[in-house]
């Protein structure tokens, strides 16, 4: 999976090579990998809600000066599958550049083989999380030099 950050590619490979009966268990383990929110985000201030998820899910991406991305996710522990998406992204994208994250395939969760373990509705929620994360990153990047300049 060369089209994604190495840590994320390793996670994807683990899921793809795992016996089907272990996939759900592996997914649930990632729900424990979501780092706690810093105090300044505890009320979801500055975070975006992902309404496509069946449960309340909030995220924030911040592009740093070195072109790496810091991510924050919040989802209740009572929603382990959705929370697992956050855990996968938190671990798999840690320290990744904006370009590497933007290159992550939109069908990430399908590539991981999760369609055999969870419902299409949950897959759509995970896809929406990744899509909103990428959009937040794109919005923070400087305009491309080849982009048309609007006249004022």
UniProtKB/TrEMBL annotation:
Q: Which residues cross the membrane?
A: none
Q: Which SUPFAM superfamilies match?
A: SufE/NifU
Q: Locate the Fe-S metabolism associated domain: which residues? A: 19-136
Q: Which InterPro entries match?
A: Fe-S_metab-assoc_dom
Q: Which Pfam families match?
A: SufE
Family statement drawn from the similarity comment of this UniProt entry: Belongs to the SufE family.
Q: Which PANTHER family match?
A: SUFE-LIKE PROTEIN 2, CHLOROPLASTIC, SULFUR ACCEPTOR PROTEIN CSDE
> What is the protein name given in its UniProt record?
Cysteine desufuration protein SufE
Upper lineage: Bacteria, Bacillati, Actinomycetota, Actinomycetes, Micromonosporales
């Amino acid at each position: 999976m060369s089209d994604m950050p190495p840590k994320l590619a390793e996670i994807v490979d683990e899921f793809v090579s795992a016996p089907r009966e272990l996939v759900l268990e592996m997914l649930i383990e990632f729900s424990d990998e979501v780092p706690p929110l810093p105090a300044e985000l505890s009320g979801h201030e500055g975070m975006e809600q992902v309404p496509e998820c069946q449960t309340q899910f909030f995220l924030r991406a911040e592009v740093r000066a070195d072109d790496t991305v810091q991510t924050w996710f919040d989802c209740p522990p009572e929603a382990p599958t959705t929370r697992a998406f956050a855990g996968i992204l938190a671990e798999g994208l840690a320290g990744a550049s904006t370009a590497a994250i933007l290159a992550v395939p939109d069908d990430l969760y399908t590539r991981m083989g999760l369609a055999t373990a969870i419902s299409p509705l949950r897959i759509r929620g995970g896809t929406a999380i990744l899509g909103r994360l990428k959009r937040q990153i794109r919005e923070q990047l400087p305009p491309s030099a080849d982009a048309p300049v609007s006249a004022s």
